[in-house]
C-alpha cells in the first residue's frame, strides 16, 4: 500500500528553507507512520518545502492540520479526492471541528491515532471507511511504536535537533489552549525506560527537544526522567511552567541532566489577564525571582507572552518588552490572544459575539480575529508588530545576551535568525510605534 502523509504549509511568512522545515509537524506524522503495517510504502511530505504531485499513484492520503493550516489542508484533500483517492484528516483542528473537516475527507480521526488506526485500516481494506473515528479511551503510552524517523533520512534540515515525547497533555487547563481539549484534559507519562531506550537510539543526540507541553507537569516523574538522562550526557530543550523554579531539586536535576533552555509561558504581566484565562498557577509577583533561579541554574529561557487580554491597555507592549530586557530573557515569543476552535475561549467569545473573523488562515496567533475589550483592533495589531520588531532590534538582543556564558552565546545566533525572520515578515508594516525601534 502506498500512503502519503502530508503537513500543509503554514500561512505564516518565512524566509529560509530551515525555518520552513522547523514549522513541519514532523513528530506527529512520524508517530502516525509507525502505526501502519511495516510493508506500507510511506512518504512524508512537507508542503512548505516540496511541491505535491497530485498525479502520483497513491492508495491513501493522510493530512494532519492545525487551525491556521486547515484551508490549505482542505485544498490538498479536495484535489486528491477529485481523483478518487481516499483522504484521512486528523490533528487538532479536525478534532475540534470534525463536521467541517468531514466535508473534505473520507474519514476524520478525532484525537490521538493510537487505538484507532488498526480499525481504520481494516475498514479501508474492506472498502467501508467510516466518516468519524473516535475512541472513548486515551491510549496508554507504554510500549508505543517509535516514530518513523527513518522516513526523514537524507534531509539536512532535520538533522539539527531530535524530537522526543515523554508525556501527553498538560496538568493545567488554560482557556486559550487547545492542548487540553485534544488530549482530553489528561496528563499521561511514558515509562522512563521507554524514553531512555528511544534517546539511546537517536543518531543525533547533540541536542534534543522534548515536545511535551509541560515536561515537569508531574514533578516525581520528571525527577526520575532527569536522573536517567544524566549518564547519557545529552543537551536538551523543553517546555515547562515557571513554577519549576519553586522546586529546587527538580531544577537542579534538570540542569544536571543537560537542560540548556526552557520554553516558559508567562503569558501576561497582568494578574487580571491570567485570571481571565484561568492560568492562576502563574504568579506575576514571583516572575523575577523564578527567572533568576532558572538562570542561576544555568538554564536559559524562551519566554512566551500573549497580547489582547481584556485587562490589556496601550502600555502592555512597552511594559512587556521592558520586562523581557530587564530580566535578560534570552529569547521571546509573542502571540495575539486567539480563540482557537475547541477551546473555552472560543466558546466564550463566540457567545459574546466578539469573533469577527472566521478565515482559519488568519488564526496564526499573529492576527487579531476578535474584538478586544480596551484596545482597538488596530492598537492590538500594531502593538504586537511593534513588540516583535523592538525585541529583534540589535540593542535589545545585546541587552539580553551580553552575559559571557554558554546560554547567552547559544541564544545569540538564534536571536539573529529571529531578527531576520521578523524584519522580513514586517517589512511592509508601517506604524508610528516603530519610531522607537532600532
How would you describe what is shown here?
With 438 residues, the chain is α/β, with parallel strands linked by helices. The chain folds into 2 domains: 2-134, Cobalamin-binding domain (Rossmann fold); 161-436, TIM Barrel (Alpha-Beta Barrel), CATH 3.20.20. It is built from 17 helices and 14 strands. Strands 2-1-3-4-5-6 form a 6-stranded parallel sheet, sandwiched between helices. Strands 7-10-11-12-13-14 form a 6-stranded parallel sheet. Strands 8-9 form a two-stranded antiparallel sheet. Helix 9 packs parallel to helix 10 (248-256) and helix 16 runs antiparallel to helix 17 (406-426). The protein is globular. It starts with a strand and ends in a 12-residue tail after the last helix.
User: How many structural domains in the coordinates?
Assistant: 2
* Sheet of most strands: 6 strands, parallel
**CATH evolutionary superfamily of the largest domain:** Aldolase class I
Q: Which outline best applies?
A: globular
Q: What is the number of strand segments?
A: 14
Give the neighbour order of strands across the main sheet.
2-1-3-4-5-6
CATH architecture of the largest domain: Alpha-Beta Barrel
The name of the CATH topology of the largest domain is TIM Barrel
Q: Strand pairing plus helix content: what structural class?
A: alpha/beta
Number of contiguous helices: 17
Q: Helicity level, as a percent range? A: 25-40%
